[in-house]
Structures
1.
Amino acid sequence: MTEVASASMAKMFVNGEWVEAASGKTTDVINPANGTVVESVPKANRADTQAAIRAAEDALPEWADTSPDQRAALILAGVDKIKQQSKELAKVLSAEQGKPVFEAMGEIHHFLHGMTFYAGLASKIRGSQVPLPPDMGKHSFGLVMKRPVGVCGAIIPWNFPITLMGTKLGPALIAGNTIIVKPASSTPLTTMKIIGLMSEAGFPAGVLNCVTGPGREVGEELLSNPTVRRIAFTGESGTGRRVMEVAGPQFKRITLELGGSDPMIVMPDADMRKAVSGALIGRFWNAGQACLAVKRLYLHEDIHDEFLEALIKKVNAYEPGDPSTKPEKPAVRMGPLHTAAQRDEIEEQLADAVSKGAKVLCGGKRPEDPALAKGHFFHPAVVTNVPHDCRLVQEEVFGPVLPVFKVKDLDEAIALGNDNQYGLGSSIWTQNLQWAHQAIRELQAGVTWVNQIHYGYDELPFGGVKASGIGHEHGPEAVEYYLETKGAVIGGLA
Ligand code: NAD
């Protein structure tokens, strides 16, 4: 078995080789649980990124000519290598990101499932043949051909660095494109190890590249360099605007997977046990740092009190602490917030709500245990009496704080659910088909889950509306964004 944590892995991967930044500069990757340095990575600049773009451009013609079966076989060989090392990779992911190891393991599995899904789709990409009017000759027909877009840039955030790389890598590679992955500066380590294992599977040099460095250098070069024809971006809505500003005028193929503020609606006939669990996982997985997290909970007045009591009992079971360890049951581990700034922001959003009359029913504080002082820990909070126009409701809350609202009926729940700039996910919990249909029709969101936790399935397209983005990832639909459609007309007989 290959040793995952080899020294060379702390370099970045360009043109089939592990390299340093030309400047020799590095960035420390900090463990959010204790402030220690996990490893250092190259701090690339625009020139380093241009080298990767050139490598991807040079590798393109040969890679675009490979057969779909060859592409799929290489992806599956990479998946095999990663699978063998998934436990070690999950530990690295936990150390750099802060999520508990069992959650990190879940993320690696999600990545492997997604890559396997796309490997299976490689041989199913096809165009079509279209009969044309006979004016230009009998039996003339058109061809709709699918071809790779070219060099792709994948820009990835820190909250789910591995699954969100997979949602870009899988469709890009099967469609015959070459790619440059730019991880967030604070979570590059597992990404690079995975890129290394994939490339060991036999991808030609330049097909798969990973450049580490700041968004304003590496990211901006990917956005502005005319050789890069496709930008797949996941991150904040503000950064998404910048992507449009720089890459838009060059008519690049852009998808934006941005922030969210998902409403979850619970009706009086819902399965309470499942709905409580849905709210719990939906809001507090990854310490609340998920785009599709349940960020606002609307409870029907008939079940409001009972639901809240059951929920708070479960929320109190969370124990913030070292994500590499498990607490004794029934306690459940919650890792730290990813950065100090992230925790500060949550605290400010919560304080703003409290100053306007909100009531914190549990949590909402830093742990007092001095052993946790060097990490960005926070006790998860449930909050009521929150005015709908305050920051905790109108902004994206990227941490473990859940505002809960009492509603008299579904119309009110949907109106409040839609009272937000975002439109990523949403859910309704009910046995009543009419209510479910109404919610699916009327909630302004890219997805509505019915009696299901908020989750991005590899099989289904996922993407937001309003300030949550443009385009889709996941599903066969995502592959279209990595393909050019070319028409051809074959003249008929005289
Ligand atoms: P971010 O926008 O700060 O950073 C995302 C990536 O963009 C990073 O790699 C960063 O280095 C890069 N970047 C920053 N400035 C750039 C620039 N000027 N040009 C090019 N690249 C640049 O986001 P984040 O804080 O890492 O991630 C959290 C956000 O991501 C949240 O808003 C969350 O909701 C969102 N998100 C959305 C989805 C989705 O599928 N809709 C999934 C996960 C996370």
Note: The first helix runs from residue 46 to 64.
2.
Amino acid sequence: MGIRLKTSSETERMRVAGRVVHEALRRCREACKPGVTTAEIDAEAETVLAESGGLGLFKNYPAPSPGVKPFPAVTCISVNEEVVHGIPGSRVIKDGDIVSIDFGVRIDGWCGDSATTILVGDVARKWRKLCDVTEQVLQIAVNNVAPGRRWSQVARQMQTFAEAEGMSVVRDFVGHGIGQQMHEEPKVPNFVSPDLIRHDIELKPGMVLAIEPMCTLGSEQVRVASDGWTVVTKDGKPAAHYEHTIAVTEDGCEVLTDGN
Ligand code: MG
Ligand code: MG
């Protein structure tokens, strides 16, 4: 247990996975047009995954256990009021939708995980702002992660910016350490809580984190829909989700899922 630091060669292997994730999300973005179904978008990621020889992290997650229905697709696609963990299917994308796509892969034993929200056609001004602010929240984290800093300092910057822009930060789902497993220690919340202060993390070179702010236009309250997976806002207001896998370096961090 505990946080496993990665060597630079391990981080480079995670970058290989990160490139596949980036390419899959790029292909999904191209496919994400009015009239296509979320299953058709998911199929684009399946194609990239097959070409890569990697293993999708989400399909059949988690390992079988009584009463748990494994996730059935390689991407999570969450439209409008859906926050995360949307199941690709027959839902048809419409002009004005915002579509969050999350994808993760393991290549030669090492994982990458990233998400983006795609604006389809003529998106309402307030919804565009939601996406813009959430993407900026992720960028604030990338700009401020550095060795010696505590994660709560970064989380506070993320939360303060989002709330000053009139957005709410989802509390029920957080980022995570990542490496040979998709979910490793530590938890990486996008907000400050007494729990975070108690279990605060000092950032160190070799830490690899999946940072993934989720913001909403209404309240931060969410619930799980009747399919057992899709997380939706309780008030039906839209949500946005952006995620990168980053590695803490000697003087900041590098993004492993930006396609470089
Ligand atoms: Mg993800
Ligand atoms: Mg993640």
Note: Residues 8-31 form the longest helix (24 residues).
3.
Amino acid sequence: MSSELEELYQSIILDHNRRPQNFRVMAESSAHAEGVNPMCGDQLTVWLKMNGDVVEDVSFQGSGCAISKASASLMTQSVKGKSRAEAEKIFDAFHGLVTGHGGGEELGKLKAFSGVARFPLRVKCATLAWHAMKSALATREG
Ligand code: ZN
């Protein structure tokens, strides 16, 4: 592997690909959204359970490459327990990180995806679950 690829596939990404967190269908969700990335073949669904303005629970299921799966897994960990506004703020910071437009220290573990910025085709993989989360957030089913 080249060092750039090594940077892309950091161990945290490989771990979350092997053992994704919150990888399940949510029976009683407030909202859900699907994400499809035909360029790579990634396909996933994100479920949210809102408690007022707070993301009480979040899960995902689907299939895709290591980047898309690990990113979805870390996304669920990042937004769980956060308010709608906080979740949207994390989305913006993460999007900035993978597109090479910043992304600060507050991203913590998500900084493992900074290498994605050098692989434009991978940006869609890394942001797929995040876009689905954001559209689920925008859906008000109750
Ligand atoms: Zn992918």
Note: DSSP finds five helices and three strands in the chain.
